Amino acid sequence: MAFKLNKDTPITILRILVGILFIFSGITKILNPSEFAWDIDNYRMIPYILVTLMAIILPWLELLCGILLMVGPFKKGASLILLFTSVMFLIAISSALFRGLNINCGCFSVNAESMKISIWKLIENIALFSALLIIVTNLFRIRLIKS
Q1: What is the pLDDT of residues 127-142, one digit of tens each?
Q2: In angstroms, rounded to a whole number, what is the distance separating the alpha carbons of residues 21 and 33?
């Protein structure tokens, strides 16, 4: 059986890559919930009771949506949820940069020096948002540019 390329192949590859990224991200946070809660709290954007709730729910949401983005009938819903979370990440990172916070982002590993908030972390999240926007517009067959 030969692999055949079609017009949906690039989007399928992008969905798989983004799905793997969110699965990895979710697993690292699930394994370290208290450290992830600490990273969230360092942003100083939400009350502590919500920090704990977010540290418990967000990693499982990332894991589940990462899986569903790759397979199953719930790709559209998963892509919308991940697009919304990427907007939240962009707001949080932009806010931390603007306020000059020297914190770990809590993105893909907890308490890693390489994950400090920086302009590069903002650029990474813009790229992730862009990838998700491409996926969402493709899954929903939305045309952003008139041809």
Answers
A1: 999 999 999 999 988 7
A2: 18
